[in-house]
């Protein structure tokens, strides 16, 4: 792949070590943030109880349910075991961060997080959840296969490193090419960022300021996004100086995304992937690389069963992900029975993925506001922690924590109510005053005594202009669209 590397025996121990640590931090936030919300989302009294999900899946699919929703919950249940999964995930993340038994930690994290994703249903159905699983699976070949702490740096096998670069290549290149192949006019005329800052799920306060910039700025920014997403991935295949430039460009794009929008641990994880592309010669200029004597030479060239397993895994992984990536941008490939069969077989394991972020730009921001009343006249809103609600509330910084109900309500607002029947379940739980679901909200207007009526109003939210902000103090303005769910109440016999 790189003649310079073969002549100089470039080492990648430093970038690998940093990536594994950032992977540990991503898992720490992923498990921790979901645990904090799990009772309200998938607990016994939550919106989508995991126990009921597994029971229904088995009833409808029989033995095939075990493959369609792979999870340890089939063995240990889906009640308090969800808490155990999260606790084990957090503890294992800390051990991985400390550099202890890294391969065993990664295997444990992959199994626990896959189990949690199946139990989490739509609340764990984000591209970065799949990215975390795939990166964790590949990372198992990057670290020493030994118990305890590795006292020296570990230069990963080339093939394992190339698998990680292939993951990064797909993640970024597909994010760029699907924007063009989708036919979305805002990407093609470079106007997408005119809408992006205010329509993304959870913007930061800096998004408000960037939204006010002129059209020419947004078009130049959009061209920059395409240049990085479509060009930088190919730099990863080039000699080291070009590869370093590509990696740094990708890191810069991720930092810009991170300061304008809250995307959980996605940016952290993607930056970690980029760090593996920077060899120790690059890190030495920052005085951060391990000395050559600190690199574990004995571990650089794995042999025997491990190398055989790595080769088989690489062939399987590249073969599957290549065809899935082709299907993501080619209608002909998408119609292929082979592609569909392979995708269906490996899809539930979320570890051989295709990607494509923001393929179609959302040009308006509908928001669902849940309101309660005791007389069907005076309505008071339920306030979510980080979504727009109060027009004067400033957009918040929340990543790498992910408020998953906030996110899913953003998606629900874009489609008809029948596409998200779980929103009605949220309303029912609030009418019953269910504490687990109420805990997902920042403010409950009827504490201790739930309202008699509930409705969901769909509004169109937009950022205010600088002049409006100066005169009103509001960050947002809104206009009503329709009643997503008209006023409802519990049956009298309940």
Topology, pairings included?
Blueprint: H1 3-8, H2 13-42, H3 50-61, H4 65-68, H5 73-76, H6 81-97, H7 102-120, H8 127-139, H9 158-181, H10 185-188, H11 192-199, H12 205-211, H13 215-235, H14 240-260, H15 266-275, H16 280-284, H17 305-329, H18 331-334, H19 337-346, E1 366-373, E2 380-381, H20 404-413, H21 422-431, H22 435-438, E3 453-463, H23 466-472, E4 476-488
Antiparallel strand pairs: 1-2, 1-3, 3-4
Helix pairs in contact: 2-6, 2-7, 2-8, 2-15, 6-7, 7-8, 8-9, 9-13, 9-17, 11-12, 13-14, 14-15
Number of helices: 23
Going across the major beta sheet, what is the strand order? 2-1-3-4
Main sheet properties: 4 strands, antiparallel
Order of helices and strands: HHHHHHHHHHHHHHHHHHHEEHHHEHE
Shape: globular
Helical content band? 55-70%
The tally of beta strands, per DSSP, is 4
> What average pLDDT do the residues reach?
92
Strand content: 5-15%
| Class from secondary-structure proportions | alpha+beta
